[in-house]
C-alpha cells in the first residue's frame, strides 16, 4: 500500500504536483488528467525513479525517498513491475529471453513459471520469436509477462495502451485488471473509456486533484524481503551468450578494436617503428664488414679523401698530430669494442714448434674485420692475435691455435729521423686470438674484398719490446678504435675533432645515416607514443559510444532489478568473452599481421615472445574498455533513458 503525504514537485519554479496526499492499495488505481497535469511526475515519484520532491511517499511503511540504489534494484526485481507505452523490451532478443530477464537475478530460472505465464497471456507460441518481429499488442503482452515473472506486488503502468489499437488496448486492460486481483496496479492513462467504475480514480489537473480519490484503501500489506537478488557467474555467461548472439556486429566491433589496439600498443612498446631505420646501417655493415665502425688514430698521414674534416685542404698535404696519451683514454671506454695497435711489419717470419711458416704480402698496415676466436691482446705478457690465414697454413683449428707460442721476427721502419730506417726485431709471443682480416674497399663504384694476411696485433708490452729493438723512441703508436655501434663511432669522432685530432674512418658512409636515424628515432619515438595513446583512446571511445548506444538496454536492466554489482559481473563476462576472442583472432591472424608490419615498418612483430606481450596488451585495453562500459552503465538514468508520459 502506498501512502502519499503532501507531495509537491516543482520544475523551474512551476508546480508539477502541488501538495498531493492519497493512498493506493490492491486493485486498479487509475491516474487520469489532461496533458501536463502531473500524472507521469506522480508515477516517477511513487516508483522511486525521482527521489527529489517535497513530502513523503511510503510503500508498506518503507520510505521511497530513502531507498538506496541497491534497495531500489531489489524493489524493481521483486516488488515493482513496470509496463510502458513503448514496451521497453530488448528487441533483438527472443520473447523467452526477454521474459527471463528479471529471473537471471533469482537463484534458479523458473522456466515452468515462464511457460505458464506465456500461456496465460496467449503468447506461448511466440516464445522463440525475436521481439522485433512482433505486433504492438503482442509486444505489450510480452512486456507484461516479463513483469509477472517478478511476481511483483505492484504494477506501475505508464500509458500502457497509447501505442495500441482498440482491441489490443482492451485486451491489455483486461490483463491488467485480472492481475490486479491480488496486486496493486497503478495505471496512468488518458483513455477514460477503459476505466471501470469500481476502480480507484485519481483525477489530476495542474498538479492538484480535481476530486479527492473516491475509494479508500483496504488493508495494510506487509513488506517482506525473501527473494534472493544476485547474479550468478553462470547466469552472467548465459546473458552474455544471448547478447553476443543478438548483437553480433557490436560484439565484432569491440573484439576488433581490442585486437587492433593490442597490436598497435605492441608496435609502440616493442619499438618496431623506432628501429625500422636501423635497416640502412645493417646493410652497410653487411657490405663493409665490422671495420666500418673503426676509427684509426695515426700521428701522421697524407691528407686526401678519407676524413671528411680535411677534404677542403690541399690533396696530398702531410698532416702530423700529437696522439700521445690518447690510446689510454679509449681503452676502457664503454663505447669501445676493442682497441688495437696499427704497426706494419715487413718481411715477417713466423716459427711455431720449430717449423717456419711463410707470411705473404708483408708491409701493410694491419687490418681486422672480426675476431673469430679468443680475445684481443690486453694482458701484460707478450700476446698476439694472428690472421686466420696463418692458422690455416698451420693446418689446425682456430681454437687449437690459441695458447701456442710463436717466434716472430720482422723488419720495422723507424721514422724517428724523418726518413725510413729499416731495423730487425723479434719476439716470442702467445697466441690469444685469431682474426678474420678481410677488408672491403670501394674501388670505382664497386666494393672490393681483400685479405690482409700479415695483420699481427701485439699486446702493448710485446709491441714496446719490438719497437724498442727497432730503436723507435719518439713516435706514439698508431692505433684503431672499434666502436660498439655506428652512433658510438660518430660520437667518438666528434669528440676527437673537438680535441683537434683528425681520425681516419668511413665517416661519410655512416654519419648521415646515424644522424638521420637519431632524428627519426626521436620522431618515431613520439609517433609511436602517440599511436599507443590513440589505441587506448580508440578502445575507450568505442566502449563509450557502445555504452551510450546501450543506454536503453542498461535502463531496462535497471528497471528489471540489476544494480551496479550485477552489471559489473555481466560486464566482466562480456569483456572476458571479447578479450578471449580478440586474443584468438590475433593468434590466428598473426602471420597476416606480420606481413603487414613487415611492409610498413620492415619488422615482424608477432614472434612467439611478442605474442605473449600482445595477449597482455589486449587484456590491458580490455580493462580500459571494462571501466568505460561500467561508467556508461552507472551514468544511465532510467527516467531519462526510458521515455515516460504521453506522446
Ligand atoms: N523534466 C522536466 N523538466 C521541466 N518540466 C517538466 C519536466 N517533467 C515534467 N515537467 C512539467 O511538469 C508538468 C507535469 O508533467 P507530467 O509529465 O507529469 O504531465 P502528464 O500529466 O504526465 O502529461 P502527459 O499526459 O502529456 O504525459 C508539465 O507542465 C511538464 O511540462
TrEMBL record:
Keyword rRNA-binding appears in the UniProt entry: no
Keywords per UniProt:
ATP-binding, Lipoprotein, Membrane, Nucleotide-binding, Transmembrane, Transmembrane helix, Transport
Superkingdom of origin: Bacteria
Q: Which SMART domains match?
A: AAA (SM00382)
Domain named ABC transporter is located at 2-231
The residue ranges crossing the membrane are 251-274, 527-548, 579-597, 617-635
Q: Which GO terms describe its molecular function?
A: ATP binding; ATP hydrolysis activity
Query: Per its UniProt record, what Pfam families does this chain match?
Result: ABC_tran
Gene3D superfamilies reported for this sequence? P-loop containing nucleotide triphosphate hydrolases
Matches recorded under SUPFAM superfamilies: P-loop containing nucleoside triphosphate hydrolases (SSF52540)
Q: Which InterPro entries match?
A: AAA+_ATPase, ABC_transporter-like_ATP-bd, ABC_transporter-like_CS, MacB-like_ATP-bd, P-loop_NTPase
Q: Which family does it belong to?
A: Belongs to the ABC transporter superfamily.
This protein's name: ABC-type lipoprotein export system, ATPase component
State the species of origin: Psychrobacillus psychrotolerans
Amino acid at each position: 500500500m502506498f501512502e502519499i503525504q503532501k507531495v509537491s514537485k516543482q520544475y523551474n519554479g512551476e508546480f508539477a504536483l502541488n501538495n498531493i496526499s492519497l493512498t493506493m492499495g490492491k486493485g486498479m488505481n487509475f491516474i487520469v488528467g489532461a496533458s501536463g497535469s502531473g500524472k507521469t511526475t506522480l508515477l516517477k515519484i511513487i516508483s522511486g525513479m525521482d527521489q527529489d520532491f517535497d513530502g513523503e511517499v511510503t510503500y508498506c511503511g518503507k520510505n521511497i525517498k530513502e531507498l538506496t540504489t541497491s534497495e531500489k534494484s531489489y524493489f524493481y526485481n521483486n516488488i515493482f513491475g513496470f509496463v510502458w507505452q513503448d514496451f521497453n523490451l530488448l528487441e533483438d532478443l527472443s520473447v523467452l529471453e526477454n521474459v527471463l530477464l528479471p529471473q537471471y537475478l533469482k537463484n534458479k530460472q523458473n522456466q515452468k513459471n515462464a511457460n505458464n505465464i506465456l500461456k496465460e497471456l496467449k503468447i506461448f507460441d511466440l516464445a522463440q520469436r525475436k521481439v522485433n518481429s512482433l505486433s504492438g499488442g503482442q509486444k505489450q503482452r510480452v512486456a507484461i509477462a516479463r513483469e509477472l515473472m517478478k511476481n511483483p506486488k505492484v504494477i506501475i503502468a505508464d500509458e500502457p495502451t497509447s501505442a495500441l489499437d482498440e482491441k489490443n488496448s482492451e485486451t491489455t486492460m483486461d490483463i491488467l485488471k485480472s492481475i490486479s486481483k491480488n496486486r496493486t496496479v497503478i495505471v496512468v492513462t488518458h483513455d477514460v473509456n477503459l476505466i471501470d467504475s469500481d476502480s480507484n480514480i485519481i483525477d489530476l489537473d495542474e498538479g492538484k486533484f480535481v476530486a479527492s480519490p473516491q475509494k479508500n484503501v483496504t488493508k495494510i500489506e506487509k513488506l517482506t524481503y525473501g527473494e534472493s537478488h544476485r547474479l550468478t557467474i553462470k547466469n552472467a555467461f548465459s546473458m552474455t551468450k544471448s547478447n553476443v548472439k543478438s548483437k553480433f556486429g557490436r560484439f565484432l566491433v569491440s573484439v576488433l578494436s581490442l585486437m587492433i589496439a593490442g597490436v598497435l600498443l605492441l608496435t609502440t612498446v616493442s619499438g618496431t617503428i623506432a628501429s625500422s631505420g636501423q635497416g640502412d646501417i645493417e646493410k652497410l655493415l653487411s657490405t663493409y664488414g665490422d671495420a666500418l665502425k673503426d676509427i684509426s688514430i695515426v700521428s701522421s698521414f697524407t691528407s686526401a679523401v678519407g676524413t671528411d674534416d680535411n677534404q677542403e685542404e690541399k690533396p696530398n698535404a702531410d698532416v702530423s698530430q700529437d696522439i700521445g696519451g690518447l690510446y689510454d683514454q679509449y681503452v676502457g671506454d664503454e663505447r669501445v669494442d676493442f682497441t688495437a695497435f696499427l704497426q706494419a711489419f715487413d718481411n715477417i717470419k713466423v716459427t711455431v714448434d720449430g717449423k717456419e711458416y711463410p707470411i705473404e704480402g708483408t708491409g701493410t698496415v694491419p687490418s681486422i674485420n672480426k675476431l673469430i676466436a679468443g680475445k684481443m691482446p690486453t694482458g701484460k705478457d707478450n700476446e698476439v692475435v694472428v690472421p686466420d690465414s696463418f692458422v690455416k697454413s698451420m693446418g689446425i683449428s682456430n681454437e687449437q691455435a690459441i695458447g701456442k707460442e710463436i717466434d716472430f721476427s720482422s723488419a720495422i721502419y723507424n721514422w724517428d729521423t724523418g726518413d725510413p730506417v729499416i731495423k730487425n726485431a723479434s719476439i716470442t709471443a702467445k697466441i690469444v686470438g685469431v682474426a678474420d682480416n678481410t677488408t672491403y674497399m670501394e674501388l670505382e663504384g664497386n666494393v672490393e674484398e681483400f685479405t690482409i694476411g700479415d695483420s699481427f696485433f701485439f699486446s702493448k708490452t710485446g709491441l714496446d719490446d719490438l719497437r724498442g729493438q727497432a730503436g723507435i723512441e719518439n713516435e706514439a703508436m698508431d692505433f684503431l678504435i672499434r666502436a660498439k655501434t655506428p652512433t658510438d663511432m660518430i660520437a667518438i669522432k666528434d669528440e676527437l675533432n673537438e680535441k683537434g685530432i683528425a681520425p681516419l674512418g668511413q665517416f661519410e658512409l655512416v654519419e648521415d645515416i646515424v644522424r638521420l636515424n637519431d632524428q627519426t628515432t626521436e620522431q618515431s619515438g613520439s609517433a609511436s607514443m602517440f599511436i599507443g595513446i590513440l589505441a587506448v583512446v580508440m578502445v575507450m571511445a568505442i566502449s563509450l559510444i557502445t555504452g551510450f548506444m546501450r543506454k536503453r538496454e542498461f535502463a531496462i536492466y535497471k528497471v528489471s532489478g540489476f544494480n551496479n554489482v550485477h552489471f559489473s559481473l555481466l560486464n566482466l563476462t562480456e569483456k572476458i568473452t571479447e578479450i578471449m576472442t580478440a586474443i584468438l583472432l590475433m593468434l590466428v591472424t598473426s602471420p597476416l599481421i606480420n606481413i603487414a608490419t613487415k611492409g610498413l615498418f620492415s619488422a615482424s612483430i608477432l614472434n612467439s615472445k611478442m605474442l605473449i606481450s600482445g595477449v597482455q596488451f589486449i587484456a590491458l585495453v580490455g580493462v580500459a574498455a571494462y571501466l568505460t562500459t561500467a561508467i556508461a552503465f552507472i551514468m544511465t538514468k532510467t527516467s531519462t533513458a526510458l521515455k515516460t508520459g504521453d506522446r
